[in-house]
Amino acid sequence: MSGFHLAQVNIARLAAPLDSPQLADFVAHLPQINELAERSPGFVWRMVDEDGADATGLRPDRTDDMLLINCSLWESVESLHAYTYRTDHLRLLSRRREWFEAPDGPHQALWWVPAGHHPTVTEAMDRVAHLRHHGPTPHAFTFRKHFPAPSSTPDGRTPGTDRAGSPATAP
Amino acid sequence: MADEEDAAYEAVSALGDPVRRRLYRYVAARPGWTGRDAAAEAAGISRSLAAHHLDRLVESGLLTTSFQRLSGRTGPGAGRPAKVYRRAEREHRVSLPPRAYDTLGRLLAGVVEEAGLDRELQAAARAAGRTAEPDTDPVTLLRERGYQPFEEPREDEHGSDGDGDGDGTTLRLHNCPFHALAEQHPALVCGMNLALIEGLLAGRRSAGGREWTAVMDPRREGCCVALKSKKNGS
Asked: To probe the interface with B, which of A22, A36, A81, A91 has the most B CB atoms within 10 Å?
C-alpha cells in the first residue's frame, strides 16, 4: 500500500432524458454494474448522490442538465483498468453511444489522492479541465499515459518503489 | 527498426519447416501450457523430434517455456517437472513489400472513437460478419479468422450466467485478432468485435445443428467474447 488511492472521474452527456425509453437499458443495468464494481479487486469508494444508490442525481455543471458524473477510488491503475475493460462493464461501455453523446474532448481523468480522501464534484471537474488544457500530467492523467503514486505518503514515509513524476506506460 | 525486422524474419523462417509449423499451430492455439507428449502426438511425430523442434521455436521467440509437473502430483515420487510450452506474447509482423495497415488502423480507430461512431462501426462489422461465406460452420469461420476457439472445461466455476437455455457448452476464444487496437480503444474495438462475431453466427449452424450466441465475457487473457450453445432446433 502506497498510502494513496487512484481517483477516477468520467463525465458524459445524456443522449436522452434518464427516464426515456432510450436510457431504460442503461438505468436497468446500473445497480448490477455498481455492485460489480464494489466487489471487484481494488475497489475503494464511489461517489453517490443524496439517494445513495448511484451518482445519476448529480449534475456537475449547473448550466447543463444532461451532464452526468461518475467518480470512484481504486487501489491501483491496474485494478481500475481490470474492472473497466475486463469485466461485464465492458459490455455497457460498448453501448455507450446509445446512451451518451460523443464527447468533444477529454471527458475522464485519473489522479492520486491520499488514502481516506474522497474527491468532491468540484475537485473532479477541475481535474478534467486540467487534463483538457494541459494534457496528461501527474495532476490529471489517463490510462494511456499514467503516473505512479507520489513517492512520499502524507505522514512522510517513503515507500521506495514509486518514482513520482515519471510517466509509466499504459497497461 | 532493422533489429525488429530481422527478429521477425528469423521467427517466420523457423516456420518454414512443415512439422514445426504443425507444432506451432497446435501449441499456439491451446490455452495454457502444452507438454512435449501432447504436441508430439498432435503433430504425429516422435517425442524427441517434437522436443527438438519445440526448442527451436523457443529460440526463435515464437514459444516460451517453463517446467511443470503435468501429472498433478506433488512431493516425492511425483517425478521430474516436465518442460512445457506456450505461445510467446511478442507480435511479429512481416509484410513484403512493407505495408503499414496497423498505422492506418490506429488512426482510423482514433478518429472513429472521437467522432462517436461506435454504432456505425458495429453495424458495419455485423454486416461484414453476415456476408462472410454462407453455410459454413461458424466455429470454422472463427478459426480461419485467428480466434483460436476452444471448448471451456465444464468444471469451470465461472461457467454460464445461468440462462439455462443451452446444452451448456461454452466456447472461448484464445486469441484476440485485434489485440493492439483493443488495448488502445477497448470500448470501440471490443464492441466492433462482438458485432462482427454476432454477424458470423447469425443464421449459421455447427455440425449437428448446434447454434451459438455470442456474449461479452472478458477474462484476463484472450478475446472478450465467448460463445454459448443454444438448444438444438430452437
From this structure: A91
